[in-house]
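Q: What residues go here?
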């Protein structure tokens, strides 16, 4: 069977009138079409939501979601593949009509029953959609069937487990693609290559040579108009449980035997299983939570979190988390993996810094050396690339060193807002490659780890710090590293 036959499919988007569809999904599908990975003969998209739209309304929205410098003829051809059906998730009749529409389109486009269901709706509907798809036999076509599920995947281990059970009534684990868009980012996918294709790094990738690892996911934005959602979630659920844990497992996993989704997942799961459990009374030694207070971002005064729209004025939800993970295995015993993530921080950046240990005997210790060296920095966004900071000789001054930086950059700054992560992930799902999606084992282990911390926070067992908007977080996060002889590297 050739690739074109496999990729021939209908993409069904639940929540086609929503924000994610417009900002990410439609432009990503267009890029796949433009690059030939979706072929004109081989795809149709069905948009579903309650609004009383027509095919043309959806096509118009799709058209406006695409960069208008693109060729109009190509855009129009692309949009002609979109169909809209008014649809209520809670109504049986909607599913019966959807099945009829899918069968008709499969016939018209000669699509061999391949169906990709994209759940771009509130998580409360995921389970209901899955069981209705099964009940009305929408999952019983002749081709493959797959489902993409947006985050958040549950709000703790028990709700995630329940969601897994509901979705598995209709889809098997290998048909479930839990999206974590960080796994679609170029440099996150590059972590494997940096580690496993370079003999200069892999021999050093362990507790003999690495002092600590720092992972920063910082945003300058506040909660914007998503205060209602965010206030029920917080930084731990929104960023740490999923994105940070995925990055940690890619950084720390053992080399897989082969680069198959199963082998890679097995190694990632082992990392999560090796996380050193922390007891309830140790939480404040390992994790810090904070909220932003009013401050300045890019010269503009911004409000504090408690004054944001749709946020309770007494809220205890954290907008910042810093933490330390310890991985109890031979490779990593004793190496802290520090993480920090927050909103309204001084810069927008996703970065991993690997700090190598000092040499046993540093011949240059008496000269000006600020320890900004022996760092490998993986820049994930907005810059993409790698920086290595080494010691070099200071010109003309004997025995003095200065940090020198070797940089490799993908130089894509100006196009970094393009939805390339979603594009990669949707295509991976269409061709059935699940490597860059979160498996239920990973999701559950990660929830099991953070649940205890969240429950202690909900009971107010540890302090809730403040940090000024436009800063890099509370002093407590600096102290956490300082007491172990480290500092956060500037981002
Ligand atoms: P949204 O803008 O609120 O859109 C929700 C969609 O669901 C709308 O199309 C709405 O359309 C539809 N809907 C609501 N109730 C329905 C019902 N009973 N039957 C059928 N359709 C219904 O949400 P979003 O921001 O696009 O987010 C969608 C999903 O992606 C959520 O799970 C979210 O957590 C996740 N996500 C979003 C982002 C983002 O940047 N937006 C990022 C990461 C994850 P009608 O009102 O017309 O029915």
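A:
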């Amino acid at each position: 069977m050739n690739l074109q036959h496999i990729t021939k499919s209908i993409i069904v988007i639940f929540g086609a009138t929503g924000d994610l569809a417009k900002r990410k999904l439609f432009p990503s599908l267009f890029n796949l079409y433009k690059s030939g990975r979706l072929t004109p003969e081989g795809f149709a998209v069905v948009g579903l939501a309650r609004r009383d739209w027509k095919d043309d309304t959806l096509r118009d929205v799709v058209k406006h979601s695409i960069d208008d410098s693109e060729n109009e003829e190509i855009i129009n051809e692309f949009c002609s593949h979109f169909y809209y059906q008014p649809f209520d998730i809670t109504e049986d009749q909607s599913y019966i009509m959807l099945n009829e529409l899918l069968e008709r389109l499969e016939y018209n486009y000669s699509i061999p029953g391949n169906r990709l269901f994209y759940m771009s709706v509130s998580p409360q509907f995921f389970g209901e959609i899955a069981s209705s798809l099964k009940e009305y036999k929408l999952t019983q076509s002749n081709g493959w069937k797959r489902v993409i599920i947006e985050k958040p995947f549950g709000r703790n281990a028990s709700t995630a487990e329940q969601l897994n059970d509901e979705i598995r009534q209709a889809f098997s684990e290998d048909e479930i693609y839990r999206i974590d868009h960080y796994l679609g980012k170029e440099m996150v996918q590059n972590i494997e290559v940096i580690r496993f294709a370079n003999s200069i790094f892999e021999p050093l990738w362990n507790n003999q040579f690495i002092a600590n690892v720092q992972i920063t996911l910082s945003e300058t934005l506040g909660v914007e108009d998503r205060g209602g959602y965010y206030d029920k979630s917080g930084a731990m659920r929104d960023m740490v449980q999923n994105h940070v844990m995925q990055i940690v497992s890619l950084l720390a996993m053992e080399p897989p035997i082969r680069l198959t989704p199963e082998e890679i997942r097995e190694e990632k799961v082992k990392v999560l299983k090796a996380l050193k459990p922390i007891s309830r009374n140790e939480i404040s030694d390992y994790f810090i939570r904070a909220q932003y207070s009013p401050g300045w971002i890019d010269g503009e005064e911004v409000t504090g979190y408690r004054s944001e729209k749709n946020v309770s004025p007494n809220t205890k939800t954290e907008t910042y988390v810093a933490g330390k993970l310890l991985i109890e295995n031979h490779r990593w015993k004793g190496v802290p993996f520090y993480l920090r993530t927050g909103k309204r921080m001084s810069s927008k950046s996703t970065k991993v810094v690997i700090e190598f240990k000092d040499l046993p005997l540093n011949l240059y210790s008496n000269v000006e050396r600020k320890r900004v060296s022996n760092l490998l920095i993986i820049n994930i966004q907005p810059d993409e690339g790698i920086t290595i900071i080494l010691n070099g000789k200071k010109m003309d001054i004997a025995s003095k060193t200065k940090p020198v930086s070797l940089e490799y950059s993908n130089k894509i700054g100006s196009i970094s807002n393009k939805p390339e992560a979603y594009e990669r992930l949707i295509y991976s799902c269409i061709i059935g490659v699940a490597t860059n999606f979160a498996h239920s084992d990973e999701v559950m282990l990660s929830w099991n780890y953070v649940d205890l911390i969240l429950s202690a926070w909900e009971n107010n067992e540890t302090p809730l710090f403040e940090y000024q908007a436009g800063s890099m977080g509370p002093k407590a996060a600096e102290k956490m590293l300082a007491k172990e002889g480290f500092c956060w590297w500037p981002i």
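A: Context that may help when evaluating the design: The two ends are 48 Å apart (CA to CA). DSSP finds 14 helices and 17 strands in the chain.
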